[in-house]
Design brief:
heterodimer; A: mainly alpha; 13 helices; 4 strands; globular; B: alpha/beta; Rossmann fold; 2 domains
Chain lengths: 326, 500
């Protein structure tokens, strides 16, 4: 018996549709923003600019995908921006010391995962607040980065190390197909494996997941490690893009990642959202920021506009989801 | 002072669903009007219209013959209507008087300072008027759920409400608290208060209500004085059909115990309790709230390791507090007593809710086989006759009975050996109850050992192959089917002849 009873089923299928609707609206906004900016600036639609745009938001794609996993569990990771600087520092120092790009890659990713493991241990195992723990590691990782670099940037010339973040095939930066691969891999992880189902379960109701024998505390540890690993990858790309390791790399990226995830329709309260939404959120957000730069908007206004976007989206979500809470 | 409220021709639709259709409902002061119906019949929608949470599409509301507009919840308060919610809305850190005067505190003269003494005095006066013993200066966090409910009602009365809506008020109360609540309701009637009482419990309805109204599929199917109808008639109107009587099938139980608990003790909670569950056997623990049985069940499931004694399962002693993951791996399942707190995953679909404990078994080459899951889920939905528009439906939109069926259908896995059920039919209607009983009996027939905690005596005798009564953490007596004596069981549960 799978018939709908006349009463009792209040809003059939509503949320499924509302996520799809959300994605359609985002695609529409992306088109509108592109057309708008291309009218304001002829360079906007040039292949060169699209390459520049995608390269500039490459790191944001990675961090926002990690943030999606975390926000699906109802958590938050404020440490990712600082972690990019820290992991980059460890990678660059290892590269300089050993001369091996691959050891450098490995070191950067392991360093990123280490910060993630610290977050995961305190949040998943000791059940501390994700906001407080990652606020602490946000400062801690930045501090470590400044110590490692001694507050100076380090130039990198190893072409293998710079390949991922710096090389383009024609107008296409190699990092873009790489990100598509990561997206595909993370999609399989989130939608096709038991780990992915456990991420949704932990964010929907931690207690239920626990009594059903799902070990949600373990799931939490792993998603922060995943977020840290993506910060490590981001560090490699960041170093490649500017050919140097910077102690202030990744500043405010956690803000951009959180905004893009929220823009993509992932719920702040966990259990609801998809990676596709995050991709669309990053694209729209990136186009707006890139467009503002190209149209010569006062750069001091950028932060103000970013803040306004976040506030607007949160307000909108609150308004549109109010009716569904009953 | 006599008041009345009339809802006339109320209609309300959600998208294509007609939730209320031409509903007339009247309530007069000095009476209890019981509102009953299966989950999803429209009771809550009607009360939300009355409380200003929903707007009716058609119809009017009149108070003492004057039409009123109830557009927002505050409007309901202005005309004297208060809703007492199941999830209580008190602030734990404030005192009883502080909660009652929240938002309209009394000040000392024209100073900004609170006049706590005067507020406490006024609250005391009200409590005395209804013969309630409660200290206005106690912090609410120290009160039990029955006392909290009383505070909510007093708050409503002191803000000049004359109509109180109570939704399943006894669902979390002990027997003692229930009696106190009924006495309070009788006193309110004398004082001219009108009460709308939503409940599934026939004895309560026929014990305190003057009028009973039954809703089904958004319309009123019966509205009668309680003296002029019967329990059978009310139940039949609710379901629209003769209720299929659940009859316990015959079965032979033999073999070694699947679960064997020896001398289990936790100071102040339970003491020296032993019990066995054999494959296919239904063992019911019962007692009053606070008898220690739920804590015992949680220890068996590995949620609590702080006990003395031993728990053996399949002939081996279990490690105390090994956690639910180990329990599930060993073929145990648990249905908790509080669906919303730790039973369901609200934003997720019916499919995800059902499949969660089963996922590992559907993994091929590291990824989940979606068609395998779909098969398991649709079988679970049909085996439990769960009503859902599709497996993609979010579980939070289902009625309580259907949510509960989903909590059961997770454990239909053939590898399950022991199922622990805490209050398996709490807060669900008679129709869903019959389905739940059938599901439990089917599982037992398949050879699953079942340990149930239930506080409802009729359910206890209907389901049990063996019944254990508990009082203050001690096992009092054991009964084997069919030699159940309800009166003796109730006496055992209440501690008759037991030292205190």
């Amino acid at each position: 018996m799978t018939s709908t009873s006349a009463a009792g089923v209040g809003h059939p299928k509503k949320t499924l549709d509302s996520l799809t609707l959300r994605y359609l609206v985002l695609i529409g906004l992306i088109l509108i923003a592109s057309v708008g900016f291309s009218m304001a600036n002829d360079n906007f639609y040039s292949l060169t600019n699209i390459g520049i745009l995608l390269r500039s938001i490459a790191v944001l794609f990675l961090l926002a995908m990690g943030m999606t996993f975390i926000m699906l569990t109802g958590g938050i990771d404020l440490s990712v921006g600082s972690n990019v600087a820290f992991a980059g520092g460890v990678g660059v120092i290892t590269l300089t010391a050993t001369g091996s790009a691959f050891l450098g890659f490995g070191a950067a990713i392991v360093a990123g995962m280490l910060i993630g493991a610290v977050n995961g241990f305190f949040i998943g195992r000791l059940k501390l607040s994700a906001f407080m723990v990652t606020l602490a590691t946000y400062a801690l990782a930045r501090g470590l980065a400044l110590v490692i670099y001694d507050a100076n940037s380090i130039n990198v010339s190893n072409t293998t190390f710079l390949w991922l973040g710096g090389v383009s095939w024609g107008n296409m930066p190699v990092v873009i197909p790489f990100i598509a691969l990561v997206f595909a891999g993370l999609s399989v992880l989130l939608y096709k494996t038991t780990f992915g189902r456990d991420v949704y379960a932990a964010g929907s109701n931690f207690n239920t997941a626990f009594v059903l024998g799902r070990r949600p505390e373990r799931t939490l540890v792993w998603i922060y490690v995943l977020s840290g690993a993506l910060a490590g990858l981001s560090a490699i790309i960041t170093v490649g893009r500017v050919s140097s390791g910077q102690p202030w790399a990744g500043l405010f990226l956690e803000f951009d990642a959180i905004t893009a995830v929220i823009l993509g329709g992932t719920s702040l309260f966990g259990g609801r959202g998809k990676l596709l939404g995050t991709i669309l959120g990053v694209l729209l957000y990136g186009i707006i920021i890139n467009g503002l730069v190209l149209t010569g908007t006062n750069p001091y206004l950028q932060s103000l506009i970013k803040g306004a976007i976040l506030l607007g989206v949160v307000l909108l979500d609150n308004y549109t989801q109010r009716g569904k809470a009953a | 002072m006599s008041n009345r409220i009339d809802m006339k021709g109320i209609g309300k639709s959600f998208f294509a669903t007609r939730a209320l259709d031409n509903v007339d409902f009247t309530c007069v002061s000095g009476e209890v009007h019981a509102l009953v119906g299966l989950n999803g019949a429209g009771k809550s929608t009607l009360m939300k219209v009355l409380g200003g949470i929903y707007q009716a599409d058609e119809g009017i509301i009149e108070v003492n013959g004057q039409q009123v507009q109830i557009g927002v919840p505050a409007d309901a308060g202005k005309v004297g209507i208060s809703m007492i919610h199941q999830e209580l809305s008190l602030i734990n850190e404030l005192t009883v008087a502080g909660n009652i005067f929240l938002g309209r505190e009394l000040k000392r003269g024209r100073t900004p300072f609170l006049d706590k003494r005067e507020m406490a005095r006024q609250v005391k006066e009200q409590l005395d008027r209804f013969g309630l013993a409660l200290n206005p200066n106690r912090p609410v966090r120290e009160l039990n759920s029955g006392e909290k409910q009383i505070v909510e009602i007093i708050r409503a009365l002191m803000s000049n409400s004359w109509l109180i809506v109570m939704d399943e008020p006894t669902s979390a109360l002990s027997e003692e608290d229930k009696e106190r609540l009924f006495e309070f309701i009788r006193r309110m009637k004398v004082e001219g208060i009108a009460i709308i009482y939503i409940s599934h419990h026939m004895p309560e309805i026929f014990g305190i209500a003057e009028q009973v109204t039954v809703m089904r599929d958004g319309v009123i199917v019966l509205s009668e004085r309680t003296g002029e109808t019967s329990e059978a008639q009310v139940i039949q109107s609710m379901t629209g059909e003769e209720l299929e009587h659940f009859v316990k099938p015959h079965k032979e139980i033999s073999g070694d115990p699947l679960l064997s608990v020896q001398g289990l003790s936790k100071p102040g909670v339970y003491e020296n309790v032993s019990l066995d569950v054999r494959p296919g056997e239904i063992v019911v623990m019962t007692g009053l709230r606070g008898c220690g049985a739920p804590e015992l069940a949680k220890a068996i499931f590995g949620l609590d390791g702080d006990y003395g004694g031993t728990i053996s399962y399949r002939g081996k002693a279990l490690k105390p507090g090994r956690g639910p993951a180990a329990a599930v791996r060993d073929g145990m399942g648990l249905v908790t007593e509080n669906r919303d707190k730790n039973g369901i995953l609200p934003p997720l679909s019916v499919r995800d809710n059902i499949a969660l404990p089963y996922l590992e078994k559907a993994v091929h080459h590291g990824v989940i086989d979606a068609s395998h899951i779909d098969k398991v889920v649709s079988k679970a939905i049909s085996d439990t006759s769960t009503k859902t528009s599709s497996p993609d439906q979010e579980i939070r939109f289902l009625s309580g009975g259907n949510k509960q069926k989903i909590c059961f259908s997770r454990w239909l896995d053939p590898d399950l050996e022991l199922l622990i059920l805490l209050e398996p039919t709490r807060g669900i209607d008679v129709h869903a109850k019959a389905d739940i009983y059938r599901i439990i009996e089917d599982m037992a027939q398949r050879g699953v050992g079942i340990l149930i905690l239930s506080y409802e005596i009729d359910e206890v005798v209907m389901l049990g192959d063996r019944v254990l009564t508990m009082y203050h953490g001690r096992r009092v007596s054991e009964y084997a089917y069919p030699d159940f004596e309800k009166d003796q069981m109730l006496a055992d549960m209440a501690g008759a002849g037991q030292p205190h």
